[in-house]
Amino acid sequence: MQAVHQRAIDEAKAAARRRLFEEISAKAEKGERFHGWCVDKADDDAVAFYKLRVRDRLVQIDRAVVVASDARLTLSASGRPFPSKTYTNADGTLFTGLDGLKFFLDFVAGLRVCAGCSAELYPHVKWSSIASRHGGSWYHKSCAVLGTRPVCPPCHKLRKLFAKRVQTPIRCRSAGVNDDAALAKLLRRKVIRATVRRERMKQELRAIKKEVQNVSRHMVDRVLELLPSDQRASVTAALRQGE
After folding, report:
1. Which residues lie in coiled coils (predicted)?
2. pLDDT at position 119
3. 80 close to 68: Cβ distance less than 8 angstroms
4. Which three-class secondary structure state does DSSP give residue 227?
5. Would you call 111 helix, strand, or coil by DSSP?
6. Do residues 143 and 114 touch, judged by C-beta distance below 8 A?
7. Which residue in 84, 71, 147 sits closest to 115, CA to CA?
């Protein structure tokens, strides 16, 4: 009995999803806007809702929601996908009617696209194992893409990591950066490290000399002990002249 009831529920949901897709497909074919979103047929099995923006006199897709014929959702912003598990059910769906779609689109419209880390601010960064570059910005591999803040927490941490990277002279020259303060700081660190190494080597050399002297004196004392008493004075005098 329970299985029959569950089957009826699943069939009702499937029918509602088909009706939803038929309704949004009709809007796409007519070129209608849906609550401020552009609507277009992505293909025979999907309808795209998207918002445009103008940047550097170029029209770009700011964010998009693609609804498949089975009501599965795909959300993206600035060409980067938004993790579906954060906003859909286990089957990849979220709603079965126009009201649910409207609520979801209003929610997405109110979110902010993560700005990431502008590559112009970090010209010394050429690669990263925890981030990827899209256009003129770096984004953490765990970037939230959309959120309530201008920069998501992972990308905010990424900015701090990039800022801590020391620009070596080679990186500065290759990136065309002329940062005298950064170069001076780097050179001071190198001088300090070289001075520490030199002092350490001096200490080691003094210790070796002292050890050799102790061994030599010990050997001389042993030799003098083996000599007859009448020869010790002459040998000792000769050693002192050699010193």
Report:
1. 184-218
2. 92
3. no
4. coil
5. coil
6. yes
7. 147
